[in-house]
Target: Ribulose-phosphate 3-epimerase
Amino acid sequence: MQKTQIAPSLLAADFGNLDSEITSLEAAGADILHLDIMDGHYVPNLSFGFPVIRTIRFLSKLPLDVHLMVTNPDFHISLLLDMDVQWVSFHQETFYHSHRLIQTLKEKGIKAGLALNPGTPIGTLEALLPDLDYILVMSVNPGFSAQDFIPSAIYKIWDLYNLRKKNNYRYLIEVDGGVTAANAKALKEAGTDILVSASYIFSSHDYSQAISALRNA
Model:
């Protein structure tokens, strides 16, 4: 069985000490760095933009997983294509032709994902499931860190896992929002491949211990 991958979300990092934060995460065993890009329109918050992404790319060799919470993912993706990011997900509600963006990413060798809000049913992705490299299940409403986990996300993960198994799909299941060691075991048992965690890791005094607790729950 493939090990569960841990993707710390840098949204909760200390940006005044970004270099040391990333170095600590690498030493602690992080598999992926998760980057939440917010525009203040699709979600009621702003995070960071392309100069910070370039800096993070310079500071780390880990794969970068960009989650676009923006109203114009096509614009962002056009610039991300040459930034050496490995994963990009966006919300299909923000773009009329999701399949076109998915294919654009895949043609550049970037893993293409779609994000599902707590209120977005899986059925809206049905025609796209064969083409997706991963699905990002939001277990909080997007826009802010340190929110409480929404338990109904477990059922969505189970359904995605069963659909994958039944139809021989190849997408990975990623979960973001309120992920802690207390719910990591249930998330993995439901079929989660990648756990994204922000405040749980960054509020810990020992990143290695926090990442290990998530992976081995």
Notes: The chain has one domain: 5-215. Helices lie at 18-28, 50-59, 73-80, 98-107, 153-167, 181-190, 199-202, 207-215. Residues 153-167 form the longest helix (15 residues).
